Amino acid sequence: MRNILRVPPTIRPLLLHASRAPYHSYEHVQPSPYREAEREILSAGLTHVPTHGFTHEALTTGAKDVGYLEVSTNLFPKGPFELVNYYLVTQRLGLKDRIQFPSEKMGVGARVRSLVLERLRANVDSGVQPRWQEALALMSLAENIPASLRELRDLSDEIWFLAGDTAVDSSWYTKRASLAGIYAATEVYQTTDQSADFRDTEEFLDRRLEGLRTVGSAMGNTMEWVGFQGGALVNLLRSKGVRI
């Protein structure tokens, strides 16, 4: 518990939840979380995010595009956050189709790195990257934190699975909590990165991953490491003008 309290408050619920609630996305066939009308409206709404941001305007314009009345946006009680969450869910589910590993000899750690970079690259390819700070702001609202953390947890689990991690010991939890913290920190960093092809973000990720001495194996001091990285993250973001 002492180690968890060293982590920034927004990350603590994830670590506490991960310590008691296992998640195996690959053990169960998951039904689509969206009905057809919801999927059509949200998908169309995302196409307007580069122009209008994660806003009601993007949502209502998307609804009109696919032939629904503006009032149909009442299907989404959380408003623009529904666009954010839909994007997170669909990008997580689509990650397995975005990357193919060239060799079975490629280690788990290298695969984790490639998967994280591919997921971050999706923010650029989809056109939402310039608007992602708006998404982060919506995710940080109290009423949206539980759903945001669930998606972060599920993404971390998906990445470990796609990387070929088969461990079922106690490290299952700590690896996922650690990777969730790394991904969240790197994604925030990416929103302030002005380097060509987000090279600085890639180097930032490599420094964070280097803190894990053996990616994909048991790590006795993982929670201590996460606490250290959490403090470093806060200082870094503040130095870049990001309000914490």
From TrEMBL:
Residues 40-64 form the Ubiquinone biosynthesis protein COQ9 HTH domain. Gene3D superfamilies: Tetracycline Repressor, domain 2. One of its GO terms (biological process) is ubiquinone biosynthetic process. It holds the Pfam family COQ9_N. Keywords: Lipid-binding, Mitochondrion, Transit peptide, Ubiquinone biosynthesis. It comes from the Eukaryota. Pathway: Cofactor biosynthesis; ubiquinone biosynthesis. It is found in: Mitochondrion. GO terms for molecular function: lipid binding. GO terms for cellular component: mitochondrial inner membrane. Residues 145-215 form the COQ9 C-terminal domain. InterPro entries: COQ9_C, COQ9_HTH, Ubiq_biosynth_COQ9. Membrane-associated protein that warps the membrane surface to access and bind aromatic isoprenes with high specificity, including ubiquinone (CoQ) isoprene intermediates and presents them directly to Coq7, therefore facilitating the Coq7-mediated hydroxylase step. Participates in the biosynthesis of coenzyme Q, also named ubiquinone, an essential lipid-soluble electron transporter for aerobic cellular respiration. Belongs to the COQ9 family. NCBIfam families: diverge_rpsU. This is Ubiquinone biosynthesis protein. It comes from Neohortaea acidophila.
